[in-house]
Amino acid sequence: MNKEVSFAKVTYDIIDKIKSSPQSKLSNQKAAELIISLKNAINQNAGEFQILKSSRYLRYLKQDFIPNNYKSIYPICSQFFDLLQLSGYVTLQESQELFSVLMKERKEDLIRRWRTEKRPVTQKKEWMTEMEDLDEIFRGILDDEKRKIRDARPQIEKVWEEFSKLFHLIDFMSMGLKNVRLVMYGSFQNMFQTAKSDIDFTLLTDCYVDERVLIKVVKEYFDEFKKKGMFQGEIKKRDETHVRIPCLVFEYKGVEFDMTINNIFSVFNSNLLNTYAKVDDRCKDLGILVKLWTKAKNICDGQKWLSSYCYLLMMINFLQVIEKPILPSLQKLATFNLERNKLKRTLDMQTEDNQDVNFAFEKDIKKIRMTLKQENNLRLSELFIFFINWLEELATSGESTINIKEGCLIPREERLEINMNDASKNPRNFVFSVDDPFDQSHNLGKNFRKQPGQKNENVENFLEKLKGTIESLKSFCLGGVTTGEIKKIFVPKESSLGVKNGMMMV
Predict the structure, then answer these.
(1) Is 182 helix (H, G, I), strand (E, B) or coil?
(2) Cα(123)–Cα(382) distance, integer angstroms
(3) What confidence tens digit (pLDDT) does each residue in 359-392 have?
(4) Phi, psi (deg, nearest 5) at residue 368
(5) What is the mean pLDDT of the chain?
(6) Which CATH number covers residue 372?
(7) What does the pLDDT read at residue 195?
(8) Which residues have C-beta within 8 Å of that of residue 141, sequence separation ≥ 6?
């Protein structure tokens, strides 16, 4: 019998045995029985040929079997690769190589299907008749936000100047920190600022420090400043073990400042988003509308739902994948590699992170625009409606990971399910899977979870708010609701700039 035929028979036998098992995962006894039967099959069909010693079998799996059968393997990939290892046909390293082949095929197929079948629907519905009037309402909302920001900015800058001077009084030198500086990031830097955005900044040290310890030290200094009357404000820590990045929150003269340590990822993320916002005004305006809408609908919460930053990444990916893309991938356009940074920071209470990260992305706006070969003339109001519909489709299907670095959707990685039984890191348990553009180990959708096989009230609540928004916009276009009711979708209560308990939150 031809060796490749034997390879195929043995490998199909693995798949059939797994699928016929009544259990979702084979027991040790069942796996042992299967291994014996598979080895017997090898001896019967290939004579003395020993599959477990053959590099030819590995090559066959990589180049032939997995590419041609990945759809059958993908749903059972954990058991499939476990059995290959237990049988001795492949090593752990070879198993991981084969898994990469599987995921490559999965990714390419998903991209092909998305480009041909599953692009966001951008065809106007019959009821979308008053889009010019809806655009005018959106412009009014945006102009009002811009006015509030413009009026408040001088005061913010003055308060920041006073506040930041206090850090010069901290004796960082005695801690062995010589090049300490404060760098802003977040909405104040990325052009997606709203009237209720706070000020995010990070204290960069260029060396490894225990972030929670340094947070504590800075708080002790400010507590002392407060006793001496040098600081009139409130200070509180957010450094619980479940908090991914410890934070110190200051309320000073009506402005909220959120401080992190060595948060270089957020600095580059802000610069990246700033560049995306400059490529097309609709990106900036749509991002602000999405932020206002998610906050008004109470679905913007990094601990339970999704953060503002996560929604912005989703919005950018939407503009990348629609027909006639409005945005490219700025990281894929980068033709240089000059911004590699050796990071030294804390991932958790004990772990030191020393990864080497490439922060390069294209910054030349003229060059970026030249890559967009087809002009997209969709209105802001149309883009908002299509984006909401796209969110509903993604939340319902749950098969894709949003990745603006690639500029497309990619399959939800299942390597973690193979290597460790950790439900908290399995993206199949997330309503949305959203990769950070630089820190690929960070999935921003992880806090918005679903429970497989159970009723998910949070998901149903989210989908209801999406549908309610579309129904309101549809009703407006058909003459059923007023301009004021549409404004409430984004600004539910009229208030002065960020006033909260007498504090101005900017």
Answers:
(1) strand
(2) 9
(3) 889 999 999 999 998 899 999 999 999 999 999 9
(4) -60, -45
(5) 82
(6) 1.10.1410.10
(7) 85
(8) 289, 292, 487, 490, 491
**For residue range 434-473, what is the model confidence (pLDDT) as tens digits?**
999 998 778 899 889 887 666 788 899 999 999 999 999 9
Which residue spans within 156-198 are E strands per DSSP? 181-185
Q: Give the end of a domain, one of 116, 141, 175.
A: 116
Lowest mean pLDDT among 89-93, 125-129, 176-180, 249-253: 89-93
Q: How far apart are CA 360 and CA 338, in angstroms?
A: 7
Q: How many domains does the chain have?
A: 2
Per-residue pLDDT band for 303 (boundaries 50, 70, 90) equals: confident
Q: Specify the pLDDT at position 223.
A: 94
Q: Give 10's contacts (C-beta < 8 A, 6+ positions apart).
A: 38, 41, 42, 45, 51
Q: Measuring CA to CA, which residue among 97, 199, 93 is closest to residue 156?
A: 199
Question: Where a domain ends, among 84, 116, 148?
Answer: 116
Answering whether pTM is above 0.90, one says: no
The answer to whether the CB of 254 falls within 8 A of the CB of 503 is: yes
Tokens describing residue 256:
């909220």
When pLDDT is averaged across residues 328-356 and rounded to a whole number, the result is 63
Q: How many residues does the chain have?
A: 506
67 by DSSP, 3-state: which?
helix
In this structure, are residues 341 and 330 in contact, taking their beta carbons and an 8 Å threshold? Answer: no
What does the radius of gyration of the chain's CA atoms come to, in whole angstroms? 27
**Residue numbers of the domain that contains 413:** 280-341+356-493
pLDDT for 103 equals 83
The predicted pLDDT at position 204 comes to 92
Which has the closest alpha carbon to 314: 342, 298, 336, 293? 293
Q: Which of 66, 77, 72, 75 is nearest to 105 (CA)?
A: 66
How many other CB atoms are found less than 10 A from the CB of residue 441?
A: 10
Given pLDDT bands bounded at 50, 70 and 90, which one contains residue 52? very low
497 within 8 A of 506, measured Cβ to Cβ: yes
Q: Is residue 350 part of a domain?
A: no
Tell me what pLDDT residue 257 has. 94
Q: Provide the total of helices (H) and of strands (E) in the chain, helices listed first.
A: 18, 14
Residue 365 lies in a domain: yes
**Within-domain flag for 258:** no
Q: Which residues contact 364 (CB under 8 A, 6 or more apart)?
A: none
How far apart CA 87 and CA 31 sit, in angstroms, is 9
Cβ–Cβ contacts within 10 Å for residue 305, how many? 21
Residues near 238 by beta carbon (within 8 Å), at least 6 away in sequence: 246, 247, 248, 249
Is 346 a member of any domain? no
**Rounded (10°) angle between helices 281-296 and 380-397:** 60
pLDDT of 414 higher than 60: no
